[in-house]
């Protein structure tokens, strides 16, 4: 009887160990992390052109640039809302972020990609500035993007400004690369939109992407030449910022005070949401832009 008792206890212990072992294996199989599917060869948005990323603002309850190319940020009436990834900058008619210092990696930039998510509504009364790299000796600054408050409510008239040393700026329709007329941006309001524009100094080529899709722009916009290359024309070449001072998100350089004069009445603060604002020192490829859009949309 005693021997049978020991056999029963031994069998019980073996059965318990087998059960625990199987249970732990089952738990491991259930909880083991499933690797992300690669998008464009990348698993995370920060992996896209990582060596070219010089500034990144995610606005996770902070105005700081995680790459530290743009520092000394002070927000004026800044609040945050729900972003495409976590939190987002929430603009208003009096909101902007002023930065006191800009690193040489941005000042000396030759080619550029600007990427951001925006969620905004139509406005009137002037132009809202998304961001601006100021210039102390020029009314229009060095680089900026703005949204005009004109046109039908379903369209967005956007202007991007770039600086070149010999000519006053990379010129189209005056001093701007302008998305208006037949090239106005459609279906842009009331939802999150991924906006990317690039300029390659090597090829003097400008591109614009909305939600990962490259816009089909006429040569007069896409190719930045002093005259027709078929007739011996040459490209504008590398960017050339000068007299750089400070940086601003959500406003114009005139909102920063001296040495600039007071803002004109049409110079408006950005009133929408902005998230995942990035600056690269290269013109991203089509594949890189698509990957960035999909990965950020997937919260990666």
TrEMBL record:
GO terms for biological process: carbohydrate metabolic process. It comes from the Bacteria. The keyword Transport does not apply. It holds the Pfam family Laminin_G_3. InterPro entries: ConA-like_dom_sf. Keywords: Lectin. GO terms for molecular function: carbohydrate binding; hydrolase activity, hydrolyzing O-glycosyl compounds. The keyword rRNA-binding does not apply. This is Concanavalin A-like lectin/glucanases superfamily protein. It comes from Flavobacterium xinjiangense.
């Amino acid at each position: 009887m005693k021997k049978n008792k020991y056999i029963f206890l031994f069998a019980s212990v073996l059965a318990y160990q087998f059960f625990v072992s199987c249970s732990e294996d089952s738990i491991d199989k259930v909880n083991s992390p499933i690797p992300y599917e690669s998008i464009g060869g990348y698993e995370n948005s920060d992996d896209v052109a990582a060596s070219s990323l010089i500034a990144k603002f995610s606005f996770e309850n902070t105005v700081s640039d995680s790459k530290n190319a743009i520092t000394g940020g002070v927000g004026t009436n800044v609040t945050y809302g729900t972003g495409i990834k976590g939190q987002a900058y929430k603009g208003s008619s009096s909101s902007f972020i002023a930065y006191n210092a800009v690193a040489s990696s941005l000042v000396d930039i030759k080619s550029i990609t600007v990427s951001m998510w925006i969620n905004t509504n139509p406005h009137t009364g002037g132009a809202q500035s998304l961001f601006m790299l100021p210039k102390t000796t020029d009314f229009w600054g060095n680089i900026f993007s703005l949204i005009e408050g004109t046109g039908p409510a379903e369209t967005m008239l956007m202007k991007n400004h770039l600086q070149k040393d010999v000519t006053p700026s990379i010129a189209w329709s005056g001093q701007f690369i302008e998305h208006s007329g037949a090239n106005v941006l459609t279906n842009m309001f009331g939802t999150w939109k991924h906006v990317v524009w690039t300029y390659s100094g090597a090829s003097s080529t400008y591109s614009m992407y909305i939600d990962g899709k490259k816009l089909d722009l006429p040569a007069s916009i896409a190719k930045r030449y002093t005259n027709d290359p078929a007739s011996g024309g040459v490209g504008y070449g590398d960017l050339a910022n000068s007299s750089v001072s400070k940086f601003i998100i959500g406003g114009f350089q005139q909102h920063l005070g001296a040495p600039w004069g007071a803002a004109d009445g049409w110079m408006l603060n950005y009133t929408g949401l902005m998230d995942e604002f990035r600056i690269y020192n290269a013109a991203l490829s089509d594949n890189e832009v698509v990957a960035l859009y999909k990965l950020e949309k997937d919260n990666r």
